[in-house]
Amino acid sequence: MAKDNQTKVTDFILLGLSNDPQLQPLLFLVFLVIYLTTFVGNAVIMVVIKADPQLHTPMYFFLSHLSFADICYSSVTVPKMLVNFLAEQKKISFNGCIAQIFFFTLFVGVEIFTLSAMAYDRYAAICDPLHYMGIMSKHICVRVVLSTWALGFLHALINTIPVLNLHFCGPNVISHFSCELPPLLQLSCTETTVNKVVLFATLLAFGLSSFLLTLVSYIHIISTILKIRSAEGRQKAFSTCSSHLIVVGLLYLTGFFLYMKPNTVSESMPDRLISIQYSILTPMLNPIIYSLKNKEVKTALGRMLRKFKFFK
User: Fold this and answer.
1) 14 phi/psi in degrees, rounded to 5
2) What is the number of H-type helices and E-type strands within the chain?
3) What's the distance, CA 263 to chain centroid?
4) DSSP one-letter string for 115-175
5) Relative to the CA of 221, which of 17, 162, 259, 267 has its CA 20 to 30 Å away?
């Protein structure tokens, strides 16, 4: 009987951000611009880092992988969101929903683990500069990046597999613009305690541990910076990690607010707007923050543009 019930729901309806037909074209245009900005901005960061030998350092190696993760992260939800803005029925198939949850969780994991690696890189550079190149050798950096993807994959697998054991017999309306795990669990006809426990446990094991690693790194970084006697030296040291600190704040504050509150439902419009911040706007803002606040990236971009004669 449970299996029969499961077959009743083959598609889900995504409520999105508005039911007003007149707003759909405007929302489509706004999020199309955001997506193109995200894609182009992160792609430019990757190309500049690859093309400029002066940026072939551990910090920019991690930044290029963060940019790649941002492109993937945004591409999981926004293209389907754009299609639904113009569609009469805002549907997503059951398999498409599960795939969206898996890849969204994967790239969120990669994002937070990469940010932790970048925090540790800044800790090594500022707190132990004499041994920096040994601590963050190319071989170690590659292993760290591979580890972030392995952990991201494990994070996604642990959260997605239990969903396959759930039965959905109706209703099939998801109060969100994408298939995120918390609102989907509200539609299950079967008990979801295991899923909620797994979700909370992975948030603690992966999210909180990553956050604590970042926090401890920055406690040591700030302590070391404050010991620098010259104001110019303090400013130079802080400028190398200020962009990263802003990005970390944007992601963790919004993500933890939604997933760590007592009843994680994400049904209200404020919750959906907060989801937009960490899942759509943050990947767009990352390259803007890193390029505007980073002289080395701006200088490298200028060299590349002059090389290809975009301007004299």
Assistant:
1) -95, 120
2) 13, 3
3) 22
4) HHHHHHHHHHHHH-GGGHHHHT-HHHHHHHHHHHHHHHHHHHHHHHGGGGG----S--EES
5) 259
Integer angstrom CA distances of residue 67 from 60, 111, 181, 296, 312 = 10, 9, 24, 16, 28
DSSP assignments along 205-271, one per residue = IIIIHHHHHHHHHHHHHHHHHHT-SSHHHHHHHHHHHHHHHHHHHHHHHHHHHHHSSSS----SHHH
Return the CA Rg of the chain.
21
Rounded Cα distance, 197 and 109, in Å? 18
What sign does the dihedral 161-165-171-172 (CA atoms) show?
positive
Question: What's the pLDDT at 140?
Answer: 93
Q: Could you tell me if 57 and 99 are in contact, meaning their C-beta atoms sit under 8 angstroms apart?
A: no
Q: What is the mean pLDDT of residues 172-195?
A: 86
In the predicted model, what is the mean pLDDT of the chain? 83
Q: How far apart are CA 217 and CA 27, in angstroms?
A: 40
231 or 102: which carries more pLDDT confidence?
Answer: 102
Average the pLDDT over 299-312 and give the result.
68
Task: Give the three-class secondary structure for 37.
Answer: helix
* Integer CA distances (angstroms), 272 to 146, 157, 179, 260, in order: 32, 24, 12, 15
Instruction: Give the per-residue pLDDT at 309.
Output: 60
Q: What gap in Å lies between CA 311 and CA 2, rounded to an integer?
A: 65
| SS3 call for 16 | coil
| Domains (range + CATH), the chain | 2-307 (1.20.1070.10)
Looking up tokens 């182009």 gives 40
Predicted confidence (pLDDT) per residue in 105-152, tens digit: 999 889 889 988 988 998 898 888 888 888 899 999 999 999 999 999
Give the highest mean pLDDT range of 48-52, 169-173, 276-280: 48-52
Output the pTM of the full model.
Answer: 0.85
